Amino acid sequence: VYNAAPTWGVTVGDALGVPDPVVTQHLHLHQGQTFSFLGIRVSSPLSLVVNGKRPPGSALAPPHLALSNPSAPP
């Protein structure tokens, strides 16, 4: 689950409700082999329903700010 905190997750056997999913067909070719699979995305792990309940706010990974300046001297 993208953007989920490392301490949160779902386990085998959990009932998972996915409101407003975006389903994408992925097709990749690598070294002569074809890999095809469906991907399901939601806007946030907080939008899921796990075992009839919404995840707590702590299920969302904290934001990280990454800066780069390629023209800065090393």
Structural description of this entry:
Residues 1-61 form the Tetratricopeptide repeat protein 5 OB fold domain. It comes from Hylia prasina. InterPro entries: TTC5_OB, TTC5_OB_sf. With 74 residues, this protein is mostly beta strands. It has a domain at 16-44. The protein has no helices and four strands. The chain has strands at 16-17, 22-30, 33-41, 49-50. A two-stranded antiparallel ribbon has the order 1-4. A two-stranded antiparallel ribbon has the order 2-3. A hairpin with a 2-residue loop joins strand 2 and strand 3 (33-41). The protein starts with 15 loop residues before the first strand and ends in a 24-residue tail after the last strand. The model has no long low-confidence stretch (mean pLDDT 91).
Helix and strand topology:
Layout: E1 16-17, E2 22-30, E3 33-41, E4 49-50
Antiparallel strand pairs: 1-4, 2-3
Structural classification: mainly beta
Query: What is the helix content?
Result: under 10%
Low-confidence stretches: none
Alpha-carbon distance between the two ends: 36 Å
- How many beta strands in the DSSP annotation? 4
